[in-house]
Specification:
By secondary structure, this protein is α+β, with helices and mostly antiparallel strands. The chain has one domain: Alpha-Beta Complex (Aspartate Aminotransferase, domain 1). The chain is 31% helix and 19% strand. It is globular.
Length: 142
């Protein structure tokens, strides 16, 4: 999935704390995309044990994407019919790729995508990946 880096984000209701250089590529990639309610709910449930998390959906009535952030850094999102994605440090990204994750380079080098509903495949441990992405985001130097 390619996107035009110069394209302006259509969803103007993005909170100012998320409209930053560290999040811009993610927001441009997600602009206009949707998330199935089951995928958004799975991500939201995985985030519940975490502390300082903010959720943002530009239009829940239209089932648009859902992002999770902490300290102004987007670290996870739900998109499409089947995908959750996490911003991970290099060590955790390597583990995620070895355990069924796929690179999600449209959002940047740190992003890994997991398909939630796969036949004959172990269930994705969303709580684990959410926690690792949350910690990595909180440790980022901005």
């Amino acid at each position: 999935m390619a996107f035009d880096v110069g394209r302006e984000i259509m969803n103007r209701n993005i909170p100012p704390e998320l409209d930053t250089s560290i999040n811009r590529q993610v927001l441009k990639c997600l602009d206009g995309l949707s998330a199935h309610s089951d995928v958004a709910e799975a991500l939201t449930t995985a985030l519940e044990p975490l502390g300082d998390v903010q959720l943002f959906c530009p239009d829940s009535q239209q089932y648009l994407y859902v992002v999770a952030s902490t300290k102004g850094v987007i670290f996870a999102f739900a998109v499409g019919m089947n995908r959750t994605c996490f911003r991970l440090d290099e060590r955790m990204k390597t583990r995620a790729l070895a355990s069924g994750g796929a690179p999600y380079p449209d959002c940047g080098d740190q992003w890994v995508s997991f398909a939630l509903f796969r036949d004959d495949w172990p269930k994705v441990d969303l709580e684990f990946w959410a926690r690792k992405a949350y910690v990595a985001a909180r440790e980022l130097e901005r």
